[in-house]
Amino acid sequence: MKLPDLNLIIALDALLDEGSVIGAARRMNLSPPAMSRTLTRIREQLGDPILVKAGRNMVPTPRALALREDVHQAMENAIRLLQPGSEVDLPSLERTFSLQANDVFISAYGGVLLNRLRQEAPNVRLRFMPESTGDEDSLRDGKVDLYINAQRPLGDDIHVQSLFSTHFMGLAREDHPIFGQEITAERFASYEQISVSRRGRARGPIDTYLAQMGLARTISLVVPTFHSGVFSLGNSDLILPLPEHVVSAVQSMGIKTRAFTLPVTLETISIIQAWHPRFHHDAAHCWFRRIIHGLCR
Hints:
This protein is α/β, with parallel strands linked by helices. Helices cover 41% and strands 22% of the residues.
């Protein structure tokens, strides 16, 4: 009886985790064509397509979803077997993890993450660092343990893992006049708005979409963070577009605002965590990354 190629488990774990051939290829340091050939072998081995096209994206089949946790557990077990000396004593671990994370992650998972860490490693601390333009340099210099932000090109030496996706919604005070009628692109553009940009930019994808319809909005306020934008709404007629994860966090705090679906078509934003190879096999760092990935999933 011919034994199956166990390397396919590694590739299958990467494909299910990344949800794309390109992402899995990057993670395994393979070319996309090579990863595509590996997916073909996996399909033949399992008798299932595993990932299928859905528009521009790929989605897992029911068989793939059923296998996901078993495959991931098999990977973790294999890592533990091959690295018997890499275990970390979590109850006695004393370490500060520095994260360069955006508002979306901090809003949705900051407090939850700290509570989760305390359950296993009560002496671990978190330090959220401000975003900067030198994200890759901060990782290479060891100034931050993890970079968590919207997906963008990073250096070839940087490890990247997908965490979650989010999309933009609109937020305004509860009794804002925009809620009096159907929220069309024309009515949306007619109200003054807040732009969130740590670089001070007032225009973005929303304006590009509106311009295609012959519309333009008025940006009356530019703030550096989503949180400062929320507190700038006050009793004004300003509108604040922001990610759904931040909207959920704002509403869970009881702040008197109301969310609505934007009447514009925007791309979904993929949030990733990235780290330098120096930490890739560090036991405590591996545990930390697994906690974050598990929370976001």
